[in-house]
Amino acid sequence: MDYCNLIELINLSYRIGIQHIELHREMIGRVFLLHNEDKRYVLKVYRSNKTDDALQTVRILDYLKANSYPVVSIVQTVQDDSHIVLNWQDDNCIGIVYEYIEGDTPDGKIEAELIGEQIGSLHQLMEKYPDKLINRTKLVYIDDYISIMRELDFDSGKVIELEHYGNKLWERMQSLPKGFSHGDLHTGNMITNHSGQYVLFDFDEASGDYPSMDVAYMSDDTNFNLFHDAAYDRTMRLYERFYSGYSKIRTLSDNEFYAVFDFIAIRHYQIISRIVRCQGLSSISKDFCDEQYNWLIRWKNLCMKNKN
């Protein structure tokens, strides 16, 4: 679908009079910035295999809005629907128009305690969420990354090591309490509004899996591509600041605390899998695979050393 046709469809479906559209980002879905004379909006077109996630996002945002929790607003269609269906590259895809959020991206280190308290409130509020949440499988968390390494003919011995580590991570995950998780929680998915609240968005990876995963991602002070021995201690310090706010609302068990460091490793399995499934095997190189292998094995050893 070209941009002229997309603008026409949006203006038929919404009362927002869009004049200009530009592609902002393309990964799991396509994100466009929409402009009229006075305002900006965000259009997210979800890949056809993400329809269930898109519709769950709508339900979660509706629930949080109804309970006065600060989240992005969905623009309703002229038919008072939350979304449109459009044909994109011969697939029927869900499209959702969001209000553009004015404000600043928070500093996750300086504001860790305040963010932690608000995320604690989110998790507590979602305990009463009335609908069933999607549960992600081991394929999503671990196994697809291993499959990709094999598809790339990555060193078989290293793949076996990564698979063994992933199996251990998954085994430990099974002992954790289940509950709502945003699933992609970082400061890039929140904006500080004029009231000082953190307005959250991008709930497309939300699940009913592990609240401690959100705590882990907000505490992560590692570098995804470059391993540093100090990363564990930096992450621990950031966790302590974040948890000082989070624990005002709810607490984590000992197993959930240790899982914070496991989820940082799992994040690598997940992100690489997402990139490759969206952009193809050619989007990562053998050197990158080697770097990630070394990162993960060094992280595993560092975590074992600190746990003992």
UniProtKB/TrEMBL annotation:
Residue ranges of domain Aminoglycoside phosphotransferase in the record: 28-249
Gene Ontology molecular function: homoserine kinase activity
A Pfam family reported for this protein in Swiss-Prot or TrEMBL: APH
Gene3D superfamilies: 3.90.1200.10, Phosphorylase Kinase, domain 1
GO aspect biological process, one term: threonine biosynthetic process
Secretion signal, residue range per the UniProt entry: none
Family in the record: Belongs to the pseudomonas-type ThrB family.
Protein name: Aminoglycoside phosphotransferase domain-containing protein
Native source species: Paenibacillus anaericanus
